[in-house]
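ok here's Hemolysin III, seq below lol
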Amino acid sequence: MSELFNFGRNYDFHEIVVDGIVNGIGIVFALVGATALIFYATVWASHGEIAAAWIYGLGLVLCLSISFTYNIWPNSRTKWILRRLDHSAIFILIAATYTPFLQRGAGDPWIFAMLMAIWTTALIGIALKCAFPGRYDKLAILLYLAMGWSGVMVMGPVSQYLQPVTVWLILIGGLIYSLGVVFHVWEKLRFQNAIWHGFVVAAAAVHYGAVMTCFSLSGSL
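and the structure came out like this:
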């Protein structure tokens, strides 16, 4: 294998199986959850909220599905392509997760600007990953974290459109993602990838709860 196709540490069979199970569980719950969310939004929400539900649901399922495919695929040129998609999908998931919350206050110019900035940054990150695969990985991790926590800049105005439980779930999910990054970069630890994806699935579940409360409790504001 050429040095060009460097995927980090080679995981053994058991690590790949456990990682596949973790990602597989995440995909199943994401499919069920996204379907329920979109159905709920279609029946009860506005057109803007329906669009936000679709964006979030598709982003969640897409990210977990690509991650599952990439991580079980044997080292090859195809895996190198999947690597670009996997890392790009993280940008999509972050932006898609923000969309339902920011959409609620999109009438506020500052919140709308943040929504546009989040998606613009995601597109820049995707371009970076596709144009320079295997390079600037540490920069990409910092960009993931910066995007994830950039919402604190508009937490004040956004919180006016959300219930306190939604805000707390957003923050808890962000903390879980951030703690998981420790294992994402701890490549020498056995089952490191499965542990990292366990944090991803857990954080995604918490953020799914935040999105659901964003929709289901919107009428009580």
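fwiw The domain at 13-220 is CATH 1.20.1070 (Rhopdopsin 7-helix transmembrane proteins). kinda neat tbh
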